[in-house]
Write a structure and sequence with these properties.
single chain, UDP-galactose 4-epimerase, domain 1, globular, alpha/beta, 3-stranded mixed β-sheet, Rossmann fold, 2 domains, 7-stranded parallel β-sheet
Length: 332
Amino acid sequence: MRILIIGGTRFVGRYIAASFLQQGHQVTLFNRGSNQELFPECQTLIGDRDSDLKQLRGQKWDAVVDTCGYFPRQTEQMAKTLRDSVPHYTYISSVSAYKSMEKKNQTEESELGVLTDTATEEITGETYGPLKAACEEKIKQTYGESCLIIRPGLIVGPHDYSDRFTYWPARAAKGGGILAPAEPDRQVQFIDVRDLSEWIVSMVEKKAAGVFNAAGDHYRMAEVLKACLSVTKSGGEIIWVEESFLNEKKVNEWMELPLWISSKKSIGIQHINNDKAIASGLAFRNIQETIMDTFNWDQTRNMKPEDYKAGMSPDREKELLSEWRAKTVSHS
């Protein structure tokens, strides 16, 4: 197949491109020129999707995968530009497109968010999801039954520069007392970028259509952290700190303590229903493999603690653990 990827050189896009190449497909990348050295075997069209779509005219591909459409205007322009030359459109959306994250076990039929200001192109916590939902709608309007919409949740693995998962293997490797958000049996959910990419390629190959959640497997927080200790061969000790204490100390969920969701308004992001995607072939590798490969990649970066985009600083962790120990001793 001849494949056009919008993006294709950062995290999800790079793994989708690599997966297509591994299956013997011919890949064209359209992006602004980052990481050009990654895929010398690919045709690369350098341009911005807001101003350079003319480069895509006059060529034909069997399918397009759009990894970086954030605004309805963008996806509408792209879809209309490609409709006559590309018969199948895949769009990488997000589970954030759902109207409410208070609900657990949401399926592809759950209600989507709606923009209060349809002209906005400002990405915030309130607009990101509804913008994704609006992007989906623009593609459906143009491609009808010939489009595939993928809604991932937290995507993890090597080359994840958000550090929203990378923090835990890196922190485990340092050992010592590791502050963790109680309860140990808290459910968390994420997907290895390679599992997501390989499945997307298989779906494009069979020209699958429709909407699919791809939020990943379900784990327990203790399972993840113990696996991090095991994989990194750390002698660290997990110290479970009560959620009420973390909230009192204004610890930021999700970013300062990755994988931790305390707000009832957001709990659903850890409980997305994947049944439809699993039935279509989505499978998950062993968590130890994801941790090991993420950790090994992270080691090549030689990052200082303050350089991570997510996670708790060593000083903050030390201070909180000291206060927590003093509190538990005083109540014993």
